[in-house]
Amino acid sequence: MSITSWRTDWVTSKCEIALALAKGAGGAGYGEAAIIISSALTALASEMWPGLRQDRARFIELLVRMSPNRPSLSTVSIPLLVQYLRMHQEHSQNALALATRFLPAGTSLVVTGPDVDRSEYEILALLPSISVRLLRQFSYACLLYEELRTSYAHQYQPGQKADSWPMTMLPNRAVSYVNKITERRIHFHIEWLAQLAVEVVMQIDSAFANIPPSRPAVWWINE
Fold it and tell me: Which of 37, 50, 82, 111 has the most C-beta neighbours closer than 10 Å?
């Protein structure tokens, strides 16, 4: 094993275990697989930027900076953002504009990430006054941390914006949505999460001769 490959080998082996668990090995399922993959990503983020009281910021930073662009982890979940905006009267017009532009009518159609989700630049082109910090709270990277990594670690289940059961069986999906009576919830597909973790660690091994690199002056999630 080469000096630079042990990290990639370690993450790859954990993802292989996660994929087996997701298929039911040992009576396990989605939750156990999500815990293992998110723990591997947490370890990578901690190694990249050691220190206390920055777990959320560095986890999100890792995904935004080190992930491939299929899809970008800075992509914004339009269904979840619209649902949030509709709950606040001062944002009602923004919610209407986003829903009219990007969402299908009604909530019965099963949609995936590419169907509805957009970059913050596309959203800002439509709504130039909306807060970038707000948009980033609904990025895939932030939702992965809050709705999967943190929720499974502290609540034994995904968060209120996510679901462990997909509504689509289409292959090679990264993100899809689960239709509830009055809302949609995001589903992160385990196969994609495992691929993501491996690609992130390979990027780290190829990009950095020495870890940790310098700490960002401002974390992406706080910009």
Answer: 37
DSSP one-letter code for 215: P
Distance CA 130, CA 75 (A): 16
Q: Is residue 1 part of a domain?
A: no
| Dist CA 190 CA 174 (whole Å) | 8
User: Secondary structure of the chain: what % helix, strand, coil (to 5)?
Assistant: 55, 5, 35
Residue with tokens 């990578």, as numbered in its chain: 44
**Mean pLDDT for each consecutive 10-residue tract of the chain (223 residues)?**
75 98 98 98 96 96 91 97 95 96 87 97 97 98 98 96 95 95 95 97 86 88 95
Q: Does 149 map to a domain?
A: yes
70 within domain boundaries:
yes
Q: How many domains does the chain have?
A: 1
| Residue 130 lies inside a defined structural domain of this protein | yes
Domain encompassing residue 109: 6-222
CA distance 123 to 103: 13
Cβ-contact 174, 9 below 8 angstroms: no
Dihedral of CA atoms 199, 201, 197, 119 in degrees, nearest 10, equals -60
CB 192 within 8 A of CB 113: no
